[in-house]
Amino acid sequence: MKMCNTEAMKKIKELDEKKALLVYTENNRSTVSYKEGEEKTPSKYDYEKTRKEIAKLDKEVRKIKHALAIANCSVKLEGFDMTIGEGLVYLSQLNSEYRRLDNLSNHDKLSRRITANGVIEYTECLYEPEEVEKEQQEVYGKICKLQIAIDRANLNNILDI
What is the pLDDT of residues 112-154, one digit of tens each? Predict the structure, then answer.
């Protein structure tokens, strides 16, 4: 079976949802309650069948995840000297940096307040907030380019599962 990385990720999600439904159904139908003297309500639950279906889904997920793991370690991103896996780590780092810079850029260069006892207190940034905003926009640009490269690689790389 051939599919691109993106299709593989969607297939994993679909299989996980099927498994979750099986487990949910199992939890609701694997026991019956009845009162003394009443007849048990029949259930279509089959322990062995459920186990086999879950094992089959798990096996398919493992195969797909293994193929994705190999692709993430070997497929290079266009315009970057890194693999998809490295790009995903770098994307996480860039997002963290963006949030940190966003926090820093929200401060005024100099602010003042009056304390509870009437003293004027100044707070001064030891950096230039405007420079941080510029750097933040550069990081955002890197995030966009990297995300596009990852998306392109995930759509163009074909897995043989």
Answer: 999 999 999 999 999 999 999 999 999 999 999 999 999 999 9
Domain count, the chain: 1
Residue 92 lies in a domain: yes
Q: Is residue 118 part of a domain?
A: yes
pLDDT (tens digit, 9 = 90+) per residue, 19-66?
999 999 999 999 988 889 898 888 889 999 999 999 999 999 999 999
Q: Mark 60-74 as b/e (b = at least 16 C-beta within 10 Å).
A: bbeebeebbeebbee
Residue 91 placed within a domain: yes
DSSP assigned state of 37: T
